[in-house]
Amino acid sequence: MSITVDRRSVLLSAAGVAAAGTLGLEPSPARAAAPMQGVLRPSVYRFKLGGFEVTNILDGFVQSNGPHPNYGNNQPAETVQAYAVANRLPSTRFENSFTNTIVNTGKEVVLFDTGNGPARAPTTGKLTSLLATAGLSPEQIDVVVITHGHLDHIGGLLQDDKPTFPNARYVFGEVEFDYWKKGDNITEARKANRDQFVKTVVPLAEKASFAKTATEVVPGIRALEAFGHSPGHMAYHIESEGRRLLVWADVCNHSVMSLQQPEWHTGADHDKHMGVATRQRVLDMVATEQIPAIGYHMPFPAVGYVEKVNGSFRWVAATYQMNL
Ligand SMILES: [Zn+2]
């Protein structure tokens, strides 16, 4: 028995009993320790944007090795590992998270991307089951906007081979849709992705419209080309009663690496140089215009501001600003 336990026993038997006696309390019978419950995370978050309501839902997360080489893809591993540690992150383990955004304009309900679906269960694919927590149903989704064709964004379009959102029409980026449909220059790593796109997304074309910069999805929501992460990747600008927000999807994929080192290449970017240029342009716009952003892979609830710091950027999580 250790000295610490001995001291504790002494304290319990002597001081404890004495205190109980002083207070006139009987010593309580032994109670079972509360069981460990495991990690618990907030997964549904809603805020106001003018007359709109914006709900973010955590579809899930995936843990893997990283952040190098996906982040700082053109940097030595040691440089990225040291940078992670300097930012209080583990050097060789990484967690990616996936946040879907739903905007209720008061007239229509617009969902941005559909999560992973069943492919990476059980830690992902929670979007549809969490809709009820948000007070919504799949039937209430009027428009599904797909920012780009990667699996973590299109994986939830179908459930048991039927549309998950049965009353929705769809909006795809025009360039993005054509790229995946045509299938030219698909890399080996994206072959399975292309197969799924052809199987699940292409048949939805008859219920879809195709966006370019300035295309209006519904009043208050406009498309903005942000190519690079994928060939036709789109961001969306939302505005209600003068309050603005940018849904930047995968322009930045890591809250530290992509913002503080935007010129570092991202392994998942289709065109790495275009990815850098788009990242710098969008970050500069959001920081200069001081508008909040939602990033699909930012830490939940995935809404924040971008601050310019020493020629670079920093993610500043939003708190109560939106609701005042
Ligand atoms: Zn993504």
The largest sheet, given as strand count, sense and whether it forms a barrel, is: 7 strands, mixed
Bound molecules: zinc ion
Number of domains: 1
What helical percentage do the residues reach? Answer: 25-40%
CATH architecture: 4-Layer Sandwich
- Intertermini distance: 57 Å
Strand content: 25-35%
Shape: globular
**What is the C-level CATH assignment?**
Alpha Beta
Strands in their spatial order, largest beta sheet: 1-2-3-4-5-8-9
**What gyration radius follows from the Cα positions, in whole Å?**
24 Å
- The CATH superfamily name is Ribonuclease Z/Hydroxyacylglutathione hydrolase-like
Helix and strand sequence? HEEHEEHEHEEEHHEEEEEHHEEE
User: What is the name of the CATH topology?
Assistant: Metallo-beta-lactamase, Chain A
Mean pLDDT: 93
Q: Total strand count, please?
A: 16
Number of helices: 8
What structural class do the secondary elements suggest? Answer: alpha+beta
Low-confidence stretches: 1-6, 8-12, 14-18
